[in-house]
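Database export, one record per block. Field names are fixed; values are copied verbatim from the stored entry.
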Amino acid sequence: MITLEDALNIILNNVQTNAVENIPIENCVNRVLSDDIFSDINMPPFDKSAVDGYACKKEDLNKVLQVTEVVAAGKIPSKKVTNGTCVKVMTGAKIPEGAELVVMVEYVEIIDKQTVKFITSKTSKNICFKSEDIKAGSLVLSKGALLRPYHAGILATVGTTSVPVYKKVKVGIIVTGDEIIEPQNTLPDGKIFNSNAYQLINSCLSVDVIPDYFGIVEDDYEAICNSINIMLEKTDVVLITGGVSVGDFDYVPAAMKSVGLEIKFDSIAMQPGRPLTYATKGNKHCFGLPGNPVSTFVQFELSIKPLLYKIMGHDYKPLTISLKLSETITRKEAKRKSFYPVRLNSDNTISPVSYHGSAHINSYAEAFGIISMDIGVFEINKGAEVYVRQI
């Protein structure tokens, strides 16, 4: 049994990054950049007005001025600003030559169509200067960036329309167990509905990888071997739930070895999710996950998600928030690192969700995130600051 930290090191040290492709900018959210992006242009590309107002010289703030023209955004000024004159400009319009600042329309008294007087003696320049945001040739986004909607705006700002990214990971999923049936069926005595497959499918979609569900496989050694072989041919990462412990019908670890996978570890000192088996074959990855749905969910978050992102070239860092605990948490044993679902309270404290073990996936209906209790720690006191991993 190894620590979670050691397990993650083993997993991430076995990664080969995916090939790359170019995709249109309108479909780039949640993808990972495979190259640095540099700007070919300055942004703004010219001095532009930050407000609707009048462009003038600073020394003319207390004078009556002649308006020589009106410049809309996207138009080019034809007049220079000279002493005693000004140009009316709209937000985003190019600043006319000779202007030093723009007075907002709110601080201007209109005498007639061609004459104005400023009713303020002080103002900001209200000019967005050429290249103050981005200089031509500068780095805009770095290789490995996980693209968010605002990144698409940045890429479009510098004229990038074809985005170089790492290809998505293909993930094969099977669920083992003679007691498992699909939820569209009537539930007979002694059976349970298949929750793990649909949880894993949607967990994969949340990371923007491609899930491929190969169905339920009975507790049969040959059937499991055949399913693993098929998935290894068609996908990059194989996820198997159930059959990884030491029961009479837990065939998954032996099946992994039979198809040529090399097992790197088969147990982690954590709760839930101790009986995790991880194996590789070339650049293929295979996880034997516990059958209990909370264990499967937690292991996906902690062990599998970082792998999927790294295959796609991204160094994943989970979102964690430091919040106070509203009540004391205790446990009787501390040989493993334990993870607990917590809810967010109205006063921005957190409290543990009622949780009855790794089969109790319904406890996560109220969960804001998960917290951990390290090996050797038996208690976290009320009021303590704890790190919450948002889910």
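Remark 1: The CA atoms of residues 356 and 363 lie 8 Å apart.
Remark 2: The chain has a mean pLDDT of 95.
End of record.
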